[in-house]
Amino acid sequence: xxRSNIRVAVVYIEGTNCEDESVAYFRHLxxxxxxxxxxxxxxxxxxxxxxxxxDYDILMIPGGFAAGDYVRAGTIFAARxxxxxxxxxxSSASRTAGPALSPGP
Length: 105
Hints:
Helices cover 32% and strands 16% of the residues. By secondary structure, it is α/β, with parallel strands linked by helices.
């Protein structure tokens, strides 16, 4: 697969850190990268903003939380990501799951 054909979703929620830098880095490498709010993947966004997890080759989860993880936002984020990626795998059995990256601590 050519780098220019690789689609990357940098998935973020309120409080995540380094999503802009992550998009810039993937674009620097030649991939098609965009910031995608978690609600865009779960269907909790207006129709024109919704995205499908199967449209991406890589899900990148930015590292760290801007204000720490005192309210367990990271745990909630991980559970929601797991739910949508599991549902995506079940609905598209013909496609193998792509990588999910998280450089967090």
